[in-house]
């Protein structure tokens, strides 16, 4: 079985990635809270490729969200599917004394 870790980086990557998860969740019958609400066993057939099933029987995207500022992450978290992601999979590096462009190239 294949397992994919989805990496979303930057503002554009996170905006496109969030839309990706909305579409994939709809196709697999997963609601914004991670619950299966579908009506066909075909929707669950290869769900393990993109999701982990938590002990609470909720499906959690296998994803890491990266950015150099918290603003994009905040908009993803407050969006319709923000509850779907694990909070510790949001990673941002912010240093107010260093311009973002230099910070990105220095790491």
UniProtKB/TrEMBL annotation:
Where it sits in the cell: the answer is:
Cytoplasm, Cytoskeleton
> Which molecular function terms from Gene Ontology are attached?
GTP binding; GTPase activity; structural constituent of cytoskeleton
**Chief localization class?**
cytoplasm
Segments forming domain Tubulin/FtsZ GTPase: 3-91
Q: List GO BP terms, alphabetically.
A: microtubule-based process
Matching entries from InterPro entries are given as:
Beta-tubulin_BS, Beta_tubulin, Tubulin, Tubulin/FtsZ_GTPase_sf, Tubulin_FtsZ_GTPase
What UniProt keywords apply to this chain's record, in alphabetical order?
Answer: Cytoplasm, Cytoskeleton, GTP-binding, Microtubule, Nucleotide-binding
Pfam families found in the cross-reference section? Tubulin
Q: Which GO terms describe its cellular component?
A: microtubule
PANTHER family xref list: OS01G0282866 PROTEIN (PTHR36527), TUBULIN_FTSZ GTPASE DOMAIN-CONTAINING PROTEIN (PTHR36527:SF4)
The family this protein is said to belong to:
Belongs to the tubulin family.
User: What protein am I looking at?
Assistant: Tubulin/FtsZ GTPase domain-containing protein
Q: Which organism is it from?
A: Electrophorus electricus
